[in-house]
Amino acid sequence: MPNIWVLAELTNGKVQKVSLEIISKVRNFGDVTAIVLGAGAESQAEILGEYGAKKVLVSEDPAYSQYLAEPTAYTVGTLAEQQKPDLIVIGTTYDGRDVAARLNVMLGCGVITDAADINYEGGALKVTVPWYSATTLVDVTSPSSTALLLVRPKSFAAEKLEGAAAPVVEQISLTLPDSAKRARIIETVSEKSEGPSLEDANVIISGGRGLKDAKNFELLHELATPLNAAVGASRAVVDSGWVPYSMQVGQTGKTVKPTVYIAVGISGAIQHTVGMKNSKNIIAINTDADAPIFKFADLGVIGDSLKIIPALTEEIKRRKG
Amino acid sequence: MNIVVCVKQVPEPTGTNKIDPNTLRIVREGVDAVLDPADEYGIEAALQIIEAQGGTVTLVSMGPDRALEAIRRGLAMGADKAIHISDANLAGSDALTTAKILAAAIKRVNPDLILCATESSDSYTGMVPGGIAQILDLPQLTFARKMTVADGKVTIQRQLEGGYQTVEASLPALVTVTGSINEPRYPALKGIMQAKKKPVESLSAADLGLDANEVGQAGAKERVTGWKPAEQRKAGQIVKDDGNAAAVIADFLASIKVI
After folding, report:
1. Cα separations (Å) of B155 from A228, B10, B45, B120, B248?
2. Which residues of B touch A76 (CB under 8 A)?
3. Looking at residue A79, what is its pLDDT?
4. What is the ipTM of this complex?
5. What class, spelled out in words, does domain A3-180 have in CATH?
6. Does B172 score more than 90 pLDDT?
7. Does B158 sit within 8 Å of A68, measured CB to CB?
8. At the top level of CATH, which class does the domain A203-320 belong to?
9. What is the pLDDT of residues A218-248, one digit of tens each?
10. Where along chain A do its domains lie?
11. Which of A115, A141, A119, A142 minimizes the C-alpha distance to A129?
12. Chain A contact for B203, CB < 8 A?
C-alpha cells in the first residue's frame, strides 16, 4: 500500500476544506499521513483523523505562518527525504503552489498539477488531468520514487470516514534554519465583500468584456441582492482593472460549482470555462450568437445584457413580492 | 538594479490549443504564437524600476528558434538584452527541467531581482518560478499585485483569496507578478526598430552544463500513459431576446428552484 502524505493547510488555525477533500479521496489507496504546520496545528489532528488520516505530523512553530513557502517546503522536503513517501498531495492554493514548486526541486521528483482524478492501477499511480482547455483527459504517472500532486479545491467531496480510529499524532522535531526565513509576511489584510463568497454561493453572476464598462458591474450587484448571489468576473475584465482579482473565476482564478452560474457578456474562453463548467446549471447572456459559451449553456440568451439584466432584476423582485 | 524577466512564447491564448495525438504535446507549428501576455506585466514592472532607479533588464527565455519573435517584442517594449536557450533536445521538458535550464541561464547574469508571471498561459503549472528560486537559493515572493524595490529590499502586496498580504525580503529575490500590477506599454515603432539591434545570446542545454539525457522528454519525471477526449456539456435552449428575455430567465431560475 502506498504511503501517502497530505499537506493539510491551515487558515486562521483551522484546516482548509481542500485538505479534507484530498484526504477523503486518497485514503482509498493507502495509509494517509497529514502534515500540519503552524499555530493551532495540534488541535486539528482530531478532524484530520475523522476524514481518514492515520498519522498526523504537527509543529506549532510560528515561523510557518510568518514566512512564505520556505519553512513549510524545508520541513516537508526534509521529512520526505528521510521517510520517502510514495506520494505527496497538496491543494492548489496560493501557499500550496509555492510550497510544491520548491519541493519539486528539493526532491527532484515528478509534479502533476491540476489532478481531476486519482487512481492506483497495479500499484502504479494514475492521475487524470484535463489538458488543452479541458478538451482532453490525459492519464499521467510519475516514475520518480516520490511523486508530487496538486489538486484544485472542489475536485473531490469531503466525507468523514465511518469508524475512523483516532490518528497517531507525532511532533516534528526539526529546527528551522534561518535561511528558510526570508520572505517575511508583515501583515495580512482581509478585503471581504458583502454577501456570500464565490466559494459558498448557490448563485453566481459573472461579468465579462460584454458589459462594456467597469461601472456596469453595478447592474450585476443589483441583480445579486435579490438572488443572494456572489458576483464574479472573467480574467479579461480583472486584467483591465475593472474589478479586483479576488472576483476572478477561471484557470487563474477560482473554481466554482454553484447551482446556477449566470455568465453575462462572457464569450466562454477556456481560461474562464475551466473554473465554472461544473456548475449545475449555466445561463449565458451574450450579444454574439457565435460565442463559445452558447455551446454548453443550459439556457443561452442572445441579446443586450445591459437591457436584460435590469429587467431581470425587476422581474425577480416582482416575483418574490 | 540588474533585473531578469523570464518570458515565454505561447500559442495565441485566445485560440483553442490543439493536441498532437502522437506526441501529446501542444501543436505549435502553424499556430499563431505570441509573447505570453502574462509576461508583459513582469517586463513592464522591470522597466518601471530601471526608469526610476537605473539598471539593466535582461530577458531569459527557453523555446524553439521562432521564440526569438517573442523575445524581440519584449526588447521592443524596452528590455536591454536577452538570453535565448534554444535546443532541439529541450522539446518536452517538464517544469523541473525548465526551472533548471532557466536558473542556469539566470545565474550568468547574477541579477538583484528576477520577475516571472505566476504561470504561463499555455501549460499553467505555475511550478517554474518557485523552482528557479529554490535552485538559486532565493526567497520567492508570489502573486504580487503591487511591488516596491528600495534600500536593498523588495516589498509586495501578495494577492490572496479574500484580501492580500504585505510581504518583504532582502534582495536578491524572485517575484511573480499578476495582471493587476500594471498596464504594460505597447511597443513603439522606435522600440521595434531598436529591438532588432539589441544583443540576444543564444545558448544550448550543453552550454548550461546540462546533459541531453536529463532534459526534454528523456528527463521528464512524468509519463503520459493514455488519453481520451473529455465529455463536453451539451448546449441547452437558445433564445433570442425579443423583449421577453427577463421572463424566460426568471422561469428557468424558478424551474431549478433558485427563486
Report:
1. 37, 29, 13, 23, 51
2. none
3. 98
4. 0.90
5. alpha beta
6. yes
7. yes
8. alpha beta
9. 999 999 999 999 999 998 898 888 988 889 9
10. 3-180, 203-320
11. A115
12. no
